[in-house]
Design goal:
- This protein is α+β, with helices and mostly antiparallel strands.
- It has five domains: 191 residues, Orthogonal Bundle (Lysozyme); 64 residues, no CATH class; 55 residues, LysM domain (Membrane-bound Lytic Murein Transglycosylase D, Chain A); 54 residues, LysM domain (Membrane-bound Lytic Murein Transglycosylase D, Chain A); 50 residues, Membrane-bound Lytic Murein Transglycosylase D, Chain A, CATH 3.10.350.
- The protein is 37% helix and 10% strand.
- It is globular.
C-alpha cells in the first residue's frame, strides 16, 4: 500500500469498527448521458451492454508493521470514508433508491465497468479535497462507459461536449479525443466541478446542477428565486427536468453504495490499489505493437486508452499510455529496447497525376499534417513521380477493434427492426431532410449512424436507415449491407472569396480540384468576385487549414 494512504487506512479501520456509514445512490437501467450545455440539457437513453467478465486484479499484499497488521480495506470502504455531501430525505432521491434496490444486477455491471478507473478517479478527488461521492458521477453520466456518446455530442466517462472540453484543455482531433481520455477528462471534470463549487459558495448540489445544465442556467434560476423572495438551494429552484433528476440520481447512488445492506444490495469490492500506470512513451506508437509489448489484448489497451481514435497514438501527443500495473514493467522494458524506427510501419507511396495530399491522407487513414511533417513539406504542393513516406498500421485495420471507424461500423451494422436501407449523402442533404424523405425520426437516424442530430453530414457519407414497412421514395436507397465504415472524412463549409483569390488558389488551399469547385457551386465563368460565397467539402483530417 502506498505510504500516503497508510494514515487514511488506519483511521478508516478505526472509524469503521464502531459505526456504519450511510450515504448516497441512483441510476436507471437505461443510462442518461447528460450534456453540459449552458442553455439546455440533452440526454440519450443507451441500453446496458452485455455483461463483461470482471478484469483480473492482483491481490493486495499485507502491510507489514512491527505491531499487529492493520486490516486491509477495499476501495469501496475508502470511497465511503471520503463521503461528505449532505443528503436530505427527499421523494426524488427515494424514487431513485427504490429503483436501485430492485436492480442489483445493474450495479454489478457498473462496478465491473468502473473497476479499471475508480482507483485513479478517487485518488484525484482525494488530492483535491473533493467529496468522494463525486467519483461516482460517471455512473450518472455514462454508466462508466468510456466510449459513451450522447445526442448532445457529449463523449466519454464524464460526458464533455466539444466546447466545454476545449475550454478545459481537452484536445479533440482526428487522432485523439481528450474527452474520452480517462486521465485527462477526470482531471478536467474535477477542475470544472471545483470551479462551479467556488462559484456557488461551496454548494456541491448547485455545482452538480451547473455541471449538468450549465452555470448560467443555475445562476438565472437563483436570481428568479431571489426576486420572488424564495430560497435558493437546489431543491427550491426551477431547473430543466433532466437537471431536477440528475442531482438526486447521484445522491441516491451514493446513499445506496454508502450502506448497501440497508437497502438489500450486495456489492462486490474493488481492490484498493491502482489498476493502471501512465507511462510516457515519448512519441507516436502503433497501438497493436504496444499491446503486444505489454502482453495484453488490443481491446484491453483501448479500454484503458479510449481517447485514441485510430490505430496509433496521436503524432502530437499526448505521448502517454495507460498500462495495467502488472504489465507496466514488461512494457517499459520492451519500449526501451524498441528501435525508434520500428514504432510505426512505413509505406513508400509514388505520387500519381491528379493526387493531392487530402486524397492520399484519406486513402491511407492519416492526416495531411502528419504527411507534411514526415515528408518535410512546407505546403500542400506535391509532384507526380515523387515519393511520400506514409505511416501505416502494423496489423490489418480490422484487428484494431475500438478505433473510431471500428466502433462506427459496429453501430451501423447492428441488427434492428424493419427494412435496412442505405443512403449516400449528396450536396444539399441534411439529416432532417433525409429523415423526412424516409419517414423516420431524425434522432433515430442519427443514433443508427453513431451521430448526434447536430453533427455535420459529409459528402459521400453512407447512412444506414431502418424503415418500418413501405417503400423508399429515394432512388439512392438500396438494401445492401454496409460491412465497413465510410472512408470519406469530408465536411461542408462556406468560403468567402477574398481579393486576389482564384479557383486554382482556393482548390490548392483546400486540397480539392477546380472541377469539384465548379460542380459544387455551378460555376461557369473563369473569374470570381470578392465577397462571393462558395460551398466546399473539405477533409477534416487536414490539420493545416
Amino acid at each position: 500500500m502506498p505510504i500516503r494512504y497508510l494514515t487514511l487506512t488506519i483511521l478508516t479501520a478505526l472509524a469503521l469498527s464502531g459505526c456504519n456509514t450511510t450515504n448516497n445512490g441512483a441510476e436507471p437501467e437505461l443510462i442518461k448521458a447528460a450534456v453540459h450545455a449552458d442553455s439546455a440539457t440533452m440526454t440519450e437513453l443507451a441500453p446496458a451492454p452485455a455483461r463483461q467478465p470482471e478484469p483480473e486484479s492482483v491481490a493486495l499484499k499485507p502491510l507489514e508493521l512491527e505491531s499487529a497488521p492493520v486490516p486491509q480495506t477495499g476501495l469501496m470502504d475508502r470511497l465511503r470514508a471520503g463521503f461528505g455531501l449532505e443528503i436530505p430525505d427527499h421523494p426524488r432521491i427515494d424514487s431513485q433508491i427504490r429503483w436501485f434496490a430492485s436492480n442489483n444486477d445493474y450495479l454489478d455491471r457498473v462496478q465491473e465497468r468502473a473497476a479499471p478507473y475508480l482507483y485513479f478517479i478517487l485518488d484525484e478527488a482525494e488530492q483535491r479535497g473533493i467529496p468522494s461521492e463525486l467519483a461516482l458521477l460517471p455512473i450518472v453520466e455514462s454508466g462508466f462507459r468510456p466510449f459513451a456518446y450522447s445526442p448532445g455530442r457529449a463523449a466519454g466517462l464524464w460526458q464533455f461536449i466539444p466546447s466545454t472540453g476545449k475550454h478545459f484543455g481537452l484536445e479533440q482531433n482526428w487522432w485523439y479525443d481528450g474527452r474520452r481520455d480517462v486521465v485527462a477528462a477526470t482531471r478536467a471534470a474535477f477542475d470544472y466541478l471545483s470551479q462551479l463549487a467556488s462559484q456557488f459558495d461551496g454548494d456541491w448540489q448547485l455545482a452538480l446542477a451547473g455541471y449538468n445544465a450549465g452555470a448560467g442556467t443555475v445562476q438565472r434560476a437563483i436570481k428568479r428565486n431571489q426576486r420572488k423572495g424564495k430560497p435558493t438551494d437546489f431543491w427550491s429552484l426551477e431547473l430543466p427536468d433532466e437537471t431536477m433528476r440528475y442531482v438526486p440520481k447521484l445522491l441516491a447512488v451514493a446513499k445506496v453504495m454508502g450502506d448497501p445492506q440497508q437497502y438489500g444490495i450486495t456489492l462486490a469490492d474493488i481492490p484498493n490499489q491502482p489498476y493502471f500506470d501512465s507511462i510516457d512513451i515519448g512519441s507516436q506508437l502503433d497501438l497493436a505493437l504496444a499491446a503486444d509489448m505489454a502482453g495484453i489484448s488490443i481491446e484491453d489497451l483501448y479500454r484503458l486508452n479510449p481517447g485514441f481514435n485510430r490505430w496509433a497514438t496521436a503524432p502530437d501527443g499526448p505521448h502517454r499510455l495507460s498500462i495495467p500495473v502488472e504489465q507496466a514493467e514488461r512494457f517499459s522494458e520492451a519500449l526501451d529496447a524498441l528501435d525508434p524506427q520500428k514504432r510505426l510501419r512505413w509505406s513508400r507511396y509514388k505520387i500519381r497525376p491528379g493526387d493531392n495530399l487530402g486524397g492520399i491522407a484519406r486513402k491511407h487513414k492519416t492526416t495531411v499534417a502528419l504527411l507534411q511533417q514526415v515528408n518535410k513539406l512546407k505546403g500542400n504542393n506535391i509532384r507526380a513521380g515523387k515519393h511520400l513516406l506514409i505511416p501505416v498500421s502494423v496489423k490489418s485495420l480490422d484487428q484494431y477493434t475500438h478505433t473510431a471507424d471500428a466502433r462506427l461500423a459496429k453501430t451501423k451494422n447492428r441488427q434492428r427492426k424493419g427494412k435496412r436501407l442505405t443512403h449516400k449523402v449528396v450536396a444539399g442533404d441534411t439529416l432532417w431532410d433525409i429523415a423526412q424523405r424516409y419517414k423516420v425520426s431524425h434522432r433515430a437516424l442519427a443514433r443508427w449512424n453513431g451521430m448526434s442530430p447536430r453533427d455535420t453530414l459529409r459528402l459521400g457519407q453512407q447512412l444506414v436507415i431502418w424503415q418500418q414497412g413501405g417503400k423508399s421514395q429515394d432512388k439512392l436507397a438500396h438494401a445492401t449491407p454496409l460491412l465497413s465504415p465510410p472512408v470519406d472524412t469530408r465536411s461542408s463549409l462556406r468560403y468567402r472569396v477574398r481579393k486576389g483569390d482564384s479557383l486554382a488558389l482556393i482548390a490548392q488551399r483546400f486540397n480539392v480540384t477546380i472541377s469539384d469547385l465548379r460542380k459544387w457551386n455551378t460555376l461557369e465563368g473563369r473569374y470570381l468576385q470578392p465577397g462571393q460565397r462558395l460551398q466546399l467539402f473539405v477533409d477534416v483530417a487536414e490539420q493545416t487549414l
